[in-house]
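Page header: ASSEMBLY MODEL / two components / 229 residues total.
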Amino acid sequence: DAGVTQSPTHLIKTRGQQVTLRCSPKSGHDTVSWYQQALGQGPQFIFQYYEEEERQRGNFPDRFSGHQFPNYSSELNVNALLLGDSALYLCASSLGGPAAGNTIYFGEGSWLTVV
Amino acid sequence: GNSVTQMEGPVTLSEEAFLTINCTYTATGYPSLFWYVQYPGEGLQLLLKATKADDKGSNKGFEATYRKETTSFHLEKGSVQVSDSAVYFCALSAPYNAGNMLTFGGGTRLMVKP
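Prediction written out in full:
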């Protein structure tokens, strides 16, 4: 049973560039969330996708956008990269959409460094 | 809004010592509470959870009790091992907040010495 898988594992981008991160949810899961974890801090919620729609969004600017595909996989896009966007980006999946209490499983993350 | 406060680390213990990592929360209603663990270079793993007051979550010798009266969810283990060295995150998910969004504390690094 495959868990949550993310790609790429590591990447380096230049300020102003755009980046796309990808996530495949755990088998059977239909809900995908994205979190940003800066070095030495706890993860912060970016947004959640269910039924191919953004259902909930955290306090992140519009430079952060996403998409969910019919097979439930998801992409996170960040435009006009800033140095402060350097972080570990975690994808999480769960079952059943916006219903609190469902167990959330995390991938190992994509390390983004902006130089 | 919702928030989680954890004791700051690092916490350094000798093997077989007793562990407590304090966690308190602020939330409207009755949140679900979680402890996640992050080993070096890895993503987050769910360690344990509790979904209502007085519930005790337990896993791998770790346990935490949902205390509504003190809004706390302290993590404990009777005898830590070197392999428990990791960063521990307390988190909550508020039921009124459609989206199953997790709010995390800042994390507590645990270092266990042989």
